[in-house]
């Protein structure tokens, strides 16, 4: 028996990296998992892997910046599994993102970036919250980052927005027994990170981390499962750092 038996979870950006780890862990704990990603091939591969291990999964396409796409994702989930209990807003533009300053980044790129990395969490939450409420409530996790407290141009700005969004939505959704929290990872050893962040910069960051290493995707899974579970049933509106001690907040 898994702790999420008979539960339905949507994980966006689950076609690889951290989202894949979340989706696979939820499936191992008994949840029916929707592997949602704009990368349909990646999503299908992850869903097939889950099913090969005896889990239940459905790959769905989603552009989290599009309300129409998010609604289609939610509707397809309802049609397949009968309800929605959990949402993990993990999708983001990161791998291959442009490195630029707020004052010089191309404006169209900036707007697209923010529509995914900040607005996407709200778009997907709006698409599912009524369906969660019909099941008696649910739980949502937003993917933040320690970049919210460091200089990191528009990426950090988006993650600071995700933190505030988490707190605002916790107030709006609490009366429907829907909890919403955020996970703020430090530097994680993913292909997206390796392809985006200069490795000399990563080395300097790691030197300042008390646990003296980059994180691995598995380091985040425990927090994800905890926050979705009934063990966290009186926790909402919080941002949890999983970062090896990179950021201290008093």
Structure in words:
It holds the Pfam family adh_short_C2. Belongs to the short-chain dehydrogenases/reductases (SDR) family. Keywords: Oxidoreductase. Strands 3-2-1-4-5-6-7 form a seven-stranded parallel sheet, with helices on both faces. The protein has helices at about 15-30, 40-50, 65-80, 105-115, 120-135, 155-175, 190-195, 200-205, 220-230; strands spanning about 10, 30-35, 55-60, 85-90, 140-145, 180-185, 240. With about 250 residues, it is of the alpha/beta class. Helix 3 packs parallel to helix 5 (about 120-135) and helix 4 (about 105-115) runs parallel beside helix 6 (about 155-175). It has a single domain (about 10-240), classed as NAD(P)-binding Rossmann-like Domain (Rossmann fold, 3-Layer(aba) Sandwich). The mean pLDDT is about 95.
Helix content: 40-55%
- For CATH, the homologous superfamily is named as NAD(P)-binding Rossmann-like Domain
Amount of beta strand: 15-25%
What is the number of helices? 9
Describe the global form: globular
N-to-C CA distance: 39 Å
Biggest sheet: strand arrangement: 3-2-1-4-5-6-7
Structural class of the helices, strands and pairings? alpha/beta
What is the compact description of this entry?
Belongs to the short-chain dehydrogenases/reductases (SDR) family. The chain is an alpha/beta fold and 250 residues long. 46% of the residues lie in helices and 16% in strands.
What is the fold's blueprint, element by element?
Elements: E1 8-12, H1 17-28, E2 32-37, H2 40-52, E3 56-61, H3 67-81, E4 86-89, H4 107-117, H5 119-134, E5 138-143, H6 153-173, E6 178-185, H7 191-196, H8 199-207, H9 218-228, E7 239-242
Parallel strand pairs: 1-2, 1-4, 2-3, 4-5, 5-6, 6-7
Organism: Mycolicibacterium anyangense
Protein name: Short-chain dehydrogenase
Keywords: Oxidoreductase
């Amino acid at each position: 028996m898994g702790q999420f038996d008979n539960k339905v979870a949507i994980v966006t950006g689950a076609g690889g990296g951290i989202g894949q780890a979340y989706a696979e862990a939820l499936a191992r704990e008994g949840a029916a998992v929707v592997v949602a990603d704009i990368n349909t091939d990646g999503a299908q591969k992850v869903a097939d892997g889950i099913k090969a291990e005896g889990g239940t999964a459905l790959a769905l396409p989603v552009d989290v910046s599009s309300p129409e796409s998010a609604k289609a994702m939610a509707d397809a989930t309802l049609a397949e599994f009968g309800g929605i209990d959990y949402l993990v807003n993990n999708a983001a533009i990161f791998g291959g993102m442009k490195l630029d300053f707020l004052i010089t980044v191309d404006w169209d790129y900036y707007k697209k970036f923010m529509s995914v990395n900040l607005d996407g969490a709200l778009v997907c939450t709006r698409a599912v919250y009524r369906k969660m409420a019909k099941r008696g409530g649910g739980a949502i996790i937003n993917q933040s980052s320690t970049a919210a407290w460091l200089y990191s141009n528009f990426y950090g700005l988006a993650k600071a927005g995700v933190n505030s969004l988490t707190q605002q939505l916790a107030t709006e959704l609490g009366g429907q027994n829907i909890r919403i929290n955020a996970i703020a990872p430090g530097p994680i050893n993913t292909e997206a990170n390796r392809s985006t962040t200069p490795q000399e910069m990563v080395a300097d960051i790691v030197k300042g981390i008390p646990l003296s290493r980059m994180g691995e995707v598995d380091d985040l899974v425990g927090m994800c499962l905890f926050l979705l579970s009934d063990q966290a049933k009186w926790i909402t509106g919080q941002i949890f750092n999983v970062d090896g001690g990179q950021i201290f907040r008093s």
